[in-house]
Amino acid sequence: MQGMSDPIQQHLVSKGYQKNFANSDLRVSVFDCTTGHEVGRQPHPIKRNFIEDHFNTLRPDGGGDDFALEREYSMMESTTLSRIRQLTPRTTDSKLLASAIALSAMHLVRSHAYRDFQSDLIARLDDEHSQSVEHDSNLKAIFTRQHNRPPDSGELAALSHEVLQGRVRSNELFVNGSRHAFNSITTILSKLHVQVIDIGPTIKNGFAFGDVPVVHLNTNTLSFGFRDRLALGDADLVMTPLTRRTAAFFTSGPRHASQLRTVTTHAILRAVNTLTIDASLRTVACHPDDLDEIARTWRYREKHRHHPSIWPATK
Fold it and tell me: For residue 73, what are the CA distances in angstroms to 10, 69, 212, 263?
C-alpha cells in the first residue's frame, strides 16, 4: 500500500527551479520547438509542468515501491535552490557554486534523454553478456547440476536476458544508474571552470529553460546532450540557466568564460537561448513576458540554421 505522502507524481524539472523563471502567479509559458508554437493558450502552473508518475521509483515485482531516490532529490532541492538564487558573476563562495553543480547534475540524470542514453547502453551490454554466457563452462555446469540436463542452445542467453529485463522493468537499473551517474557528473563538473553570467538592466527579456534544463554540447560536432548520445566527458561546454536573469557556464578553462559576465545585447541573449532550444527534446519554458522573444529566437534559428557563438573559440 502506498502512503498518502508518497511522491508518485515526480517533476523531471524541479518545481522550485521553474519558480526561478515564473511570473507572480507561478506560471511559465511553454513553447514547442518542433512546431514553433506555444503549448496551450495560457501560461502553465509550475506544479503541473514536466511531471511523470514513478520516473525515479524503484518498483520490484513483489510490490513495495521505493521512493528513496525521489526523496533524495527533494532534499537536495531544498538546499540548492535557495543558494543558486544568490549566485552572481562575482560569486566565489564554494558552497553556492557547489549548489549550481548539484542542481545541474540532478537535472542531467532526471531526464528522458539520460534514460534513453542508459537504455542504449543496457541493450548493448545485454547482447554482449548473452553471447558470453552461452560459452561459459561454469554456468553450463551449474545449470546441469540444477536441472539434471545440459542447457539447450540459447537457453542460458535467454535466462540472462530475462534477469536483466526484470531489473529494467522494476526500474532498478535506472535508479541505481542515476545515483552513480549523478556522482560521476558532479565530479566532472567540479573539475571545470564555472562562470555565472547575468543579464544587464537594459535587457528586459530573460533566459529560458528546456525540458532538459542543462545543455551539454560538443562545439565541434554540434552534438547536444544525451539525446545525441554525447557523454558528458566528450562535451566542451555545459550551460545551466539558473534563474530568469542568471546562468552558469562550465568550461575547461577560465579564458573561455572570462569574455562574458553580463549579457548586454539581445544578440547575446539570443545566442544563449538558442543553445537551450537546440538541446531540448521538444519544449522550452520561460517567463510569460519572454515568450515572444523565444518565438523570435526560434524563427531566427530556423531561418539561419547556425549556432551563434558566445566565444570565438571554446577549445
Answer: 10, 6, 16, 31
Domain boundaries, the chain: 9-110+191-304
pLDDT band of 98, cuts 50, 70, 90: very high
**Which candidate, 118, 61, 46, 100, places its Cα nearest to that of 286?**
46
Residue with cell 531544498: 78
- Burial bucket for residue 187 (CB in 10 Å: 0-12, 13-18, 19+): exposed
Cα dist from 94 to 101, 255, 314, whole Å: 10, 20, 24
User: Is there a contact between 61 and 169 (Cβ–Cβ < 8 Å)?
Assistant: yes
- What's the rounded Cα separation, in Å, for the pair 2 and 208? 36
Q: Which three cell numbers stand for residue 127?
A: 547482447
119-150, pLDDT tens digit by residue?
998 888 888 888 888 889 999 999 999 999 99
Task: Report the distance separating Cα 8 and Cα 66, nearest Å.
Answer: 10
Contact 101, 186 (CB under 8 A): yes
pLDDT at residue number 310: 52
Let me know: does 240 contact 212? Beta carbons within 8 Å: no
SS3 category, 218: strand
Measured between alpha carbons, how far is 93 from 115 in angstroms, rounded to an integer?
33
- Residue 256 CB partners (closer than 8 Å, separation 6+): 193, 237, 249, 311, 313, 314
User: Please, are residues 285 and 32 in contact by the beta-carbon 8 Å criterion?
Assistant: no
